[in-house]
Amino acid sequence: MSEHPHKAQLPEPLDLSGWRKVPNVLLIAGGLLAAIGAVVSIEQFAFSWLLGFMFCLSLGVGALFLVLVHHLFDAGWSVPQRRFLEHMASLLSPWMGILFIPIALLAPKYLYGWMQNDPHTDHALHAKLPLFTVVGFYLVVVFNFVMWWVLTRGLLRWSIEQDKTGDARCTFKMRQYSYWGVFVFAITTTLAAVMWMKALQHQWFSTMYGVWYFAGSVWLTIGTAYAIMALLDRQRVLTPVLHNHQFYYLGTLFFAFTVFYAYITFSQYFIIWNANIPEETFWYWIREQGTWFWISMIIIFGHFFVPFLTMLRIDAKSTPLVIVPLAAWAWSMHYFDLSFNIMPVLHPEGFPLRWIWLDAGCAAFMVGLLTKLFLRKYRSGNPYPIKDPRLVEAMGLAHPVATPISGGDIDETDFFVDSPPEPESNQ
């Protein structure tokens, strides 16, 4: 039997020994910068911490969405990357909840001015009662993190149980979690975007804001998942269960959410611009002042046109040398996008370049901490679901009739085998 073409063309594994200390460096250096920033300007620290938090939250909710969609559609191709996405999603609670503590403490005085306002004299605040109250704000915090804990722990628990027993009940349980979980996901993600970001300027109205945050978060997570999958493939961790179509399908999703994000962002702007109501247009007017205009140009061209044109070729989607750098580019674009939404509240004159070190410090601390936790979780078990009933299909192997839907192409029947090999230890 000839070797599978995907496995035959892989280069030698990378030497990653020099990268093992990177999470610790990020954690320590970022923590020092964040602490210095808190002493220099507690208000700026509050906004920079919120920016870093919403960035990391994007990766968590994006991973959770991809896991939910995998089960809802009974997908076969996405089985190999499901395990690391489950571990990414499980960081939502309690770890992201712990990182929310500074925001919860600083919210009334430094972040959300409406908490000091009287709803009897503030019509915009009165119209959003009882959600926009101090009690309502903290109830949303508790609700979000509790629901994320229940959902991510349930999905991961049954996934690990599937590894042990291979019982079909595990598959059905994960599908059950997903069919109600997707509604919980929509509610909690919308509440997070509205209460923790849009509420910085509570007078503004937008019914598309939750969808905007969702689109950007999933876009960022798909690019990150592609880079992780490519790295694990290069290191021979996922290679036994990967097929070329995983890269193509994930790249296609990356391309699709590039277009979807642009559609949602433009639609929100166009509807508000067309209505021309001061209660809505003031939000965009502020973001046209000073250097914020140029940040908006970066978002338009960098967040949409660069990835769109790069992935337009069909072969680009399945080429890690193209998509992995694009994933790194997505991190920078998502930072500008979130900064465009958060920082004009504190810096209406323009992009606060002089405080970018504090933004980087807060984000580095969180990324370093979450990376250490993720690696510890991922190393604790199997690198992929070894007894998932769709795993063989994901590999494009051992299907009675080879079809594109089942994961195999007609001209690849020479590479069919009975079952995937047992994974090597991931310790």
Explain what you see.
- It is a single chain.
- The protein has helices at 5-8, 22-40, 42-72, 79-89, 95-99, 101-111, 123-126, 134-165, 168-196, 209-234, 244-275, 278-286, 292-310, 320-342, 356-379, 391-394.
- It contains 16 helices and no strands.
- With 427 residues, the chain is mainly alpha-helical.
- The two termini are 31 Å apart.
- It has one domain (29-384).
Q: Could you list some keywords that capture this structure?
A:
single chain, 427 residues, mainly alpha, 16 helices, 66% helix, globular
Number of domains: 1
- Radius of gyration, CA atoms, in whole angstroms: 22 Å
Order of helices and strands: HHHHHHHHHHHHHHHH
Largest sheet: none
What's the mean pLDDT score?
Answer: 90
Number of strands: 0
Helix content: 55-70%
Residues in β-strands, percent: under 5%
The 3D shape can be described as globular
Count of helices? 16
Structural class: mainly alpha
State the separation between the terminal residues, measured CA to CA. 31 Å
Low-confidence stretches: 400-419
